[in-house]
Amino acid sequence: MIDKQRHRARPVPHGFLPNWVLVVLATGAMALVGFAHSFV
Fold this sequence. Notes:
The protein is mainly alpha-helical.
């Protein structure tokens, strides 16, 4: 069972960003929006 799941996992292509990069970008965007609204 473990071996089958291990072989099923594919390496991420170089064209795609890792999940943590998307999380950081999303968090930064939300922070900038909140920061901008605090001045308005």
